[in-house]
Amino acid sequence: MCGIAGCICGKGGNAVPDVYEGLKRLEYRGYDSAGIAAVTDDGVTVVKKRGVVEKLFPHIGGMKGEIAIAHTRWATHGKPSDTNAHPHVSGGICLVHNGIIENYCELKEKLSREGETFLSETDSEVIAVLFKRNYSGSLTAALIKTVKELKGSYALMVICKEEHKIAVAKYKSPLIIGYGKDRIYCASDEPALAGKCSEISVLEDGDFALLSEDGAEIFDSRLRPVARKKQPNRAVSAELSLGGYPHYMLKELHEVPASVKNTFSAFSGVESEIVKTFSGVKRIIVTGCGTAYHAGLVGKRYFESFAGIPTDAETAGEFRYSEPVITDGTVVVAISQSGETADTVEAARLALSRGAKVVAVTNSPYSALTRLACVTVPVAAGAEICVAATKSYTGQIAALYLTALAVAGETADGERAARLADMPALCAKTIENVNVSSLAHMCAKSKGVYFMGRDLDYAVAREGSLKLKEVSYIPSEGYPAGELKHGTLALISPKTVSVVIITDKALAEKSVNAVEQVLARKGKAAVITNVDDVEDDLKGRAEIVRLPRCDKFLAPLAAAVAVQELAYRTAVKLRRNPDKPRNLAKSVTVE
Ligand code: M6R
CA distances (Å), 438 to each of 129, 255, 552, 563, 573, in order? Predict the structure, then answer.
């Protein structure tokens, strides 16, 4: 959801290559356009282009400046174009923005009446114009005055040729400061600073900072100087490379076993705190968006089956506006890979304000969600670059499994936990042996793909469908197998593929009925299964994707690998880039 990067160095240094590299590492946050502004001897130079960051490369060869700011955009207000690309310039002021200014129409109208003109359709240009009007020799003073007029969310960086500084402000969009050897950085996220600095500070909402080559002066919302703790930068350059894989999606799929294993190892560090936080719990609400919500559907089943606690799962965007009933003893479990998803963070804030305890399940220990939560269950998936979530989903399921066991009073060395310890090897075996090639071919030629399952298989069906539509653009739906005959059957034709996930022997017969109903209507059918009888029944009539046998509560991990691989192979067959699906960004920090 837009990535920003800035760098300031001493006399004779060049900040441009650093911000360019930073942008490339932030591209998962948006790839509609990119731009860089640098303070050079001749003033401020700006290069901006529609498309991916690489499009800037031919234009920045001769660009050199001790100060540079940069932006990679996920378009919200105004189409992807050169003009709507950041940085925005007004007078000598250059600005990059991540977030949404909700009152921009009002401000734009007022400024237009007062004679200002605008080049772009963006909300961000309004900030640049306001800033120019407020600037009278002090970047900080102008920034403070400007943000007072804004409603919405922002991470801002501003430069001008008159001052050897970068001014920044943060509210509800992430921003970190990085301390390099002879330069200071600022960026949306740690990967931008991998290999550049080993220590970072995370800014809080309402913070301002003034960066110079010597360091960062940080002020809180009441303009009091504050120190924001220096923490290690966890992003490592080597981990961010493709490592010989053609796409991050495939690389990250192969990292599923490590994600489950490392999440298991990390859990012991929080187990006692989890037990404390859940003590006296009467009701659990699991929330998140997209894939994280789908992990929550699996988690709901764990909390109910292992601990016997009534649990609801709701998407964070719905939870916020559904007037949730939160009574004494409610724990809200908020799941998010990035820990920055606006709806999930706001759902957690709402839950806290109503007296619930909030438990975060996240990959991002410095995120807004972690800072809000009473306790965080770490998902040790490592950096996930591909927009489509893979290893973070399986890591989240492992984290929820262990959390539910802890709530049930079972320790991490108990029998059920031991079954999870076997899963990294089983997932690795699945990745090695699962053959989805022929099914991917069927999907790529189809007009629609319907994923079905019962109980935990239904949760995986939802995820399989999301993954497929996200990276292949084929219309898809994931629904409970029992619902087929209540509507979706009307859509079944020889041009559609129905994928039925069957990993619970006890429910297999019922799910096979759904396959028969699809076949009777001349639809194409496939099963993803680890049940022998299903294979025997359907051989030659439906495509079979075979999974290794495992505990029914952990089958979603192996089935997830199969549906993720299916989505990947289908996208590649259709020549789509699975790492950068159209219209999407990885971290959705606006509503
Ligand atoms: O960072 P989060 O886990 O909060 O992100 C939530 C969703 O935006 C995310 O899972 C999205 O659905 C994925 N791109 C799906 O692959």
Answer: 56, 24, 26, 13, 11
- Distance (Å, rounded) from C-alpha 551 to C-alpha 27? 38
Q: Are residues 503 and 556 in the same domain?
A: yes
Residues 181, 259: one domain? Answer: no
Nearest-atom number in ligand 1 for the CA of 389 is: 16
Cβ 472 under 6 angstroms from ligand 1:
no
The rounded distance, in Å, linking the Cα atoms of 315 and 341 is 12
**CB-ligand 1 contact for 341 (6 Å cutoff):** yes
Q: How far is the centre of ligand 1, averaged over its atoms, from the C-alpha of 563 (Å)?
A: 16
> Which domain CATH number covers 364?
3.40.50.10490
Beta carbon of 389 within 6 Å of any ligand 1 atom? yes
Q: Rounded mean pLDDT of 405-424?
A: 93
If asked whether residues 23 and 151 sit together in one domain, one would say yes
Could you confirm whether 586 is annotated as catalytic? Answer: yes
Report the domain count for the chain.
Answer: 3
230 and 251 together in one domain = no
Same domain for 232 and 250, yes or no, is no
Sequence-ordered strand ranges (E) for 316-424: 330-336, 357-362, 375-378
pLDDT digits (tens, 9 = 90+) for 141-184: 999 999 999 999 999 999 998 999 999 999 999 999 999 999 99
Asked if 299 contacts 331 with a C-beta cutoff of 8 angstroms, the reply is no
Q: Which of 421, 455, 484 is the last residue of a domain?
A: 421
Q: Which residue has the higher pLDDT, 45 or 236?
A: 45
Q: In the structure encoding, which two tokens stand for residue 439, read together?
A: 């099914």
| Domain with 41 in it | 3-237
Residues 91 and 178 in one domain: yes
591 lies in some domain: no
Binding site membership of 370 for ligand 1 (Cβ less than 6 Å) = no
pTM, rounded to two decimals? 0.92
Q: Is 336 in the pocket of ligand 1 (CB under 6 A)?
A: yes
The answer to whether 2 is a known catalytic residue is yes
Cα separation, 86 vs 516, whole angstroms:
54
Which residue's C-alpha comes closest to atom 16 of ligand 1? 388
SS3 category, 228 = coil
Tell me, what amino acid is at 300? K
Tens-digit pLDDT profile for residues 419-437: 999 999 999 999 999 999 9
The CA 588 to ligand 1 mean position distance, Å, reads 8
262 domain-assigned: yes
Q: Which atom of ligand 1 is nearest to the CA of 586?
A: 14
Q: Are residues 249 and 233 in the same domain?
A: no
Q: Is the Cα torsion angle 559, 560, 563, 569 positive or negative in sign?
A: negative
- The residue among 387, 421, 455 that closes a domain is 421
CB-side neighbour CA atoms (13 Å) of 550: 23
Q: In what order do the strands lie in the sheet with 330-336?
A: 311-315, 283-288, 330-336, 357-362, 375-378
C-alpha 222, offset from chain centre:
31
Q: How far apart are CA 340 and CA 413, in angstroms?
A: 32
Task: Give residue 291 CA to ligand 1 midpoint distance, Å.
Answer: 5
Any ligand 1 atom below 6 A from CB of 468: no
